[in-house]
Amino acid sequence: MTAIQAPQAVVPAPAEPQHDGGRRRRHPWVLWTALAVAAVVFVYPFVWLVSASLKPRPEVFDNALVPHHWAPENYATIWSAAPVLTWMVNSVIVAVAAAAAVTVSSAIVAFGFAYFRFPGRNVLFALVVGTMMLPGAVTMIPTYLIWNELGLAATQVPLWAANLFGSAFYIFLIRQFFLGVPRELFEAARVDGAGYWRLFWRIAVPLCKPALIVAFVFELRASWSDLLKPLIYLRDPALFTMPRGMKSILDQFGQAGESRWEVVLAGAVLTTVPMIIAFFLCQRYFVEGVATQGRKG
Amino acid sequence: MSSRETRAAYGFLSPWIIGFLIFMAGPMVASLVLSLTDYDVLTSTDFVGAANYQQLLADPKVRTSLANTLIYTVLHVPLTMAVSLGLAMLLVRAGRRSAGFFRTVFYLPTITPKVAVGVLFLLLFNGQVGLINEVLGWVGINGPDWTSDGQWIKPGLVVMSAWSLGSTVIIYLAALQDVPRDLYEAAEMDGASPWARFRAVTVPMISGALFFTLIINTISSLQTFDEVYTAFFGSSNQQTYGNDAALFYVIYLFQQAFQFLHMGYASALAWLLFLIIVIITLLQVRLSRRFVYYESE
């Protein structure tokens, strides 16, 4: 994978002049119809989910867009049947810890690769990029044994603590932005007697905030959604994260349990809504982050 | 290059180096060693040589889960890439402002936690009352039992997975927006048909992004867990349930390691997965040398 480009500016690369991919728009209505149909297909499951979660049990599967009868009590049911608030708080704590840990540590490592010229740099950086291909499933068991040995296997610590050591994708991403900082800024600060840490903390970090926010929101989403690690580590329902709690709600109320799908759906909405809010608050960063991924290819 | 600077550089890199040794290199070696033992946490551990690997070759569940995973991957990756490219090509023609709106619409489902996706799958694809079969009914198609007929579970999951292809769309859109417009104009001047322009200009110019998404979608597809486990595996009232038609490789690995505590055997399973991923990735890299075009070379 060559053709690695550093962003020209410190902020996310500005949009290039618009073009239409080389075709004149002879049939604009075809384009707009296709896009509108696709948009409906992508949005409809959300609408269906929220709508069904507000229906009384006999009507859950009527596939009506607007409930014939409203049943907001589904949310009261789930609220009393499961410690939803505790799970939410757990998820927020774990996700924020995971995101903050990975952002700070990855930024430190990224600065090491971006600013310094030292023996072994290229080999080490290739190794960092290589670990992106390492499947998590391979290290899953020994990692569990480490936490078990430390007496932390049944706690939330394993859900975020490994993030303190940086993560390849974010190191790569943030380094790209650090490389875009004009070197004269660092040299001038060096002349004024600034140490390396000061270069990192006072110059590189403030200039590359967008990249750090991208890393933060990406990891926030990944950590919030994760089911596998909570399944492995968490035994006590009081420690469950929202997806792990959601799975137990499904087991209790879903097909293998009492078949009260309206409760399951209310749980699914509660699991999803915080991410939707986070998304609309930081939309630009989500999208810029993904777009940058492609450019590194 | 002063040695002081080198020391400082390694200081910045130290979090990653420590993390690499503890959470990647160490566990890789440890799981290889474990795979040669009968470690099960509870009883004493013996070295069993290649016995786990022999067992794995004879285990029908390994074959089932591997086949399920490969079938899913072979269907999921091309579908995701083709639909994403189609949507991205629509977006690039829509102009920047509208593209921004639709891009958000297409990306939104990807931030939905996979547990919620698993729940949505069970309900939307339900054979009797699901929305999908209702829509199919409008055009006279009698839809299958997507969630219970073993033959239809994987195709159903593949269709559901297309809901979460927003990241790939954004990567392709960014790549398409970077294609110089004069290439299309030149091709049009030469009388190239739309299909010829697509083959001769679009595909080579975005081949880097195509290759990147092929690799990451394949690697993540081979490790599919969350949504499938949510929908088809779990326990209620002390009873565990599962479905062989939805037994994906990482689900089987998880069961062996953390439900049956066959950690030695599960480590062998993990290494087999690692080898499969390495081989498939290397094949894809070789293939890419034929068709990926790098501007910088």
Task: Provide a concise account of the structure shown.
The complex is a heterodimer of chains A (297) and B (297). By secondary structure, chain A is mainly alpha-helical. Chain A has helices at residues 28-53, 73-81, 84-115, 121-131, 136-149, 168-179, 183-191, 196-207, 209-225, 228-233, 242-253, 261-281, 283-296.
Task: Please give a structural write-up.
The complex is a heterodimer of chains A (297) and B (297). Chain A contains 13 helices and no strands. With 297 residues, chain A is mainly α. Chain A has one domain: MetI-like fold (Orthogonal Bundle). Chain A starts with 27 loop residues before the first helix and ends with a helix. Chain B has a single domain, classed as MetI-like fold (Orthogonal Bundle), CATH 1.10.3720.10. Chain B has 14 helices and 2 strands; from the N terminus they run H-H-H-H-H-H-H-H-H-H-H-H-E-E-H-H. In chain B, helix 2 packs across helix 14. The interface between A and B is large, with 105 and 120 residues.
SSE layout:
The complex is a heterodimer of chains A (297) and B (297).
Chain A: H1 28-53, H2 73-81, H3 84-115, H4 121-131, H5 136-149, H6 168-179, H7 183-191, H8 196-207, H9 209-225, H10 228-233, H11 242-253, H12 261-281, H13 283-296
Helix pairs in contact in A: 1-12, 2-12, 3-6, 3-9, 4-6, 9-13, 11-12
Chain B: H1 3-34, H2 51-58, H3 60-93, H4 96-107, H5 114-124, H6 131-138, H7 150-161, H8 166-177, H9 181-189, H10 194-205, H11 207-222, H12 226-232, E1 234-236, E2 239-241, H13 249-259, H14 263-291
Antiparallel strand pairs in B: 1-2
